[in-house]
Amino acid sequence: MCSVHYNHTLAAMSGNDMMAHSLTLEQKTAFAFVGMLLVFLGLLIVRCFRILLDPYSSMPSSNWADGVEGLEKGTFEYALT
Source organism's superkingdom (predicted)? Predict the structure, then answer.
């Protein structure tokens, strides 16, 4: 009732026939580009997790208000400088 057809051509191919079915230059370039994007994504994920685990290590130790003298914190002029 149900007929199943198997394609045995790949198993019976010689070495020269297998070279004909290799990837083209465009496919190799696309795979290389996708691979580089995945590596970049992995690095960004690692960096984000490091910042989440220790957020204060990435901040500079100096205060952003250093150098503002003569103004009180909380005043309007202090916020503008």
Answer: Eukaryota
Both structure tokens of 3: 């007929």
Query: CA angle at residue 70 from 68 to 74, to 5 degrees?
Result: 75
- Residue 48 phi/psi, 5° resolution? -65, -40
- Which residues does 68 contact at the CB level (< 8 Å), separation at least 6? 78, 81
Q: What are 51-55's contacts with CB under 8 Å, separation 24+?
A: none
Are 71 and 81 contacting, i.e. CB atoms less than 8 angstroms apart? yes
62-75 pLDDT tens trace? 655 555 555 555 56
Residue-level pLDDT at 71: 54
Quick one: DSSP state of residue 1?
-
Rounded CA separation 26/37 (Å): 16
